[in-house]
From TrEMBL:
One of its GO terms (molecular function) is histidinol-phosphate transaminase activity. It catalyses: L-histidinol phosphate + 2-oxoglutarate = 3-(imidazol-4-yl)-2-oxopropyl phosphate + L-glutamate. It holds the Pfam family Aminotran_1_2. The modification N6-(pyridoxal phosphate)lysine is found at K225. Residues 34-360 form the Aminotransferase class I/classII large domain. InterPro entries: Aminotransferase_I/II_large (IPR004839), HisP_aminotrans (IPR005861), HistidinolP_aminotransfase (IPR050106), PyrdxlP-dep_Trfase (IPR015424), PyrdxlP-dep_Trfase_major (IPR015421), PyrdxlP-dep_Trfase_small (IPR015422). This is Histidinol-phosphate aminotransferase.
């Protein structure tokens, strides 16, 4: 009998999202939990997006615009590009998938970075590709020189998350520009800028300012983070029209639903909400970093972040910290799945949520350390 699936599917480890609050509360018999595990916007969705989506509820029986004309036009205007250079997706994750399905075959290779977004190797392995992982440099930052050296004649696509999930680190503009110039012309570079809006570093720049350096460049953005539309699912990619044309041949029809298209277009225009989201993130980051500093003698440290989360190193297994906090009603993300077993990722919530997380950490960590030393 023939195998049900190929070896590349049989050995594929799927992406494991965090459980919903409702499910965890039901399992543990607790109430009033806070979720600081999935890098969601603690302010909720953009009010303009909510209003736009609500206005369409009575049109749910009508298929959405298969080409997402309004959303693509809004994105094109926002970035100063042509609508023909924009593709929309069911979150930016779908844009990543479309890119691999369009341009890559099982004979091709991909280059990713160690400790980068888990979706990249998953998508590539599902296509049957060979994946090469370049090492990072301290403090858990993309080593673009190492990535450039990892490229082979069979490399078809390279992924750079800037800033990166789960480390929160970023690549300075001059390093990214150098890298784009080093990558062979026939290799596609995907720069994933899901956390772009949160960046405060002065030496950062979006890859959209570097489109003249490398032609086969795809820049991905999402509405899931700063715009607060994670549950509605909308994202987009910007690339030369020739690349977008090929990707649209693979893209599923009606891939961005009716509500998501108008909500995302409205959110893109809600600059005041973005400013509030960034401001509360900076406030929460300050509180979290100050609170974690009090645990330095206990072996706690963190990676400086340009996102809406911190990757925190703990003195015991991260999953033990996750489990102990969970029973306090605080949900964070253990990082063992990324090969970072002594880390947890903590999303930056509201100031009150951050303080609750810290207080819970203060309560559980001494006991966990004592058990480790016993």
């Amino acid at each position: 009998m023939k195998a049900l699936v190929g070896e590349h599917i049989e050995t594929l480890k799927p992406y494991v999202p965090g459980k919903p609050i409702e499910e965890l509360e039901r399992e543990l018999g607790i109430e009033g939990s806070i979720k600081l595990a999935s890098n969601e916007n603690p302010l909720g969705p953009s009010p303009k997006a909510t209003e736009a989506a609500r206005a369409l509820l009575e049109k749910g029986h009508i298929y959405p615009d298969g080409a997402a004309h309004r959303l693509r036009a809004a994105v094109a205007k926002f970035h100063g590009v042509s609508p023909d250079e924009v593709i929309t997706g069911n979150g930016s994750n779908e844009v990543l998938t479309i890119a691999v399905r369009t341009f890559c075959t099982a004979d091709d290779e991909a280059v990713v970075s160690q400790y980068s977004f888990a979706a990249y190797p998953i998508i590539c392995q599902a296509q049957g590709m060979t994946i090469h992982r370049a090492p990072m440099k301290e403090p858990l930052t993309f080593d673009l020189k190492a990535m450039a050296e990892t490229i082979t004649p069979k490399t078809k696509i390279v992924f750079v998350a800037n800033p990166n999930n789960p480390t929160g680190t970023y690549v300075p503009a001059d390093e990214l520009r150098w890298f784009l110039g080093e990558v062979p012309d026939d290799v596609i570079v995907v720069v994933d800028e899901a956390y772009h809006e949160y960046v405060q570093a002065e030496d950062y720049a979006s890859a959209e300012t570097m489109r003249d350096v490398h032609e086969r460049l795809i820049i991905c953005r999402t509405f899931s983070k700063c715009y607060g539309l994670a549950g509605i699912r909308a994202g987009y990619g910007i690339a030369p029209a020739a690349l977008i044309d090929r990707m649209n041949r693979v893209r599923e029809p009606f891939n961005v639903n009716l509500l998501a298209q108008d909500a995302a277009a409205a959110a893109l225009d809600d600059l005041a909400f973005v400013e509030r989201s960034v401001a509360i993130n900076e406030e929460g980051r300050g509180i979290l970093e100050e609170g974690l500093s009090a645990l330095a003698d206990s072996g706690v440290s963190w990676i400086p972040s340009q996102t809406n989360f911190l990757l925190v190193k703990v003195p015991v297994e991260g999953v033990k910290v996750y489990d102990a906090l969970l029973r306090k009603g605080v949900i964070v993300r253990p990082m063992a799945g990324y090969g970072l077993g002594d880390y947890v990722r903590i999303s930056i919530g509201t100031p009150d949520e951050v303080r609750r997380c810290l207080n819970s950490l203060y309560e559980v960590l001494p006991t966990l350390v004592q058990r480790e030393e016993a």
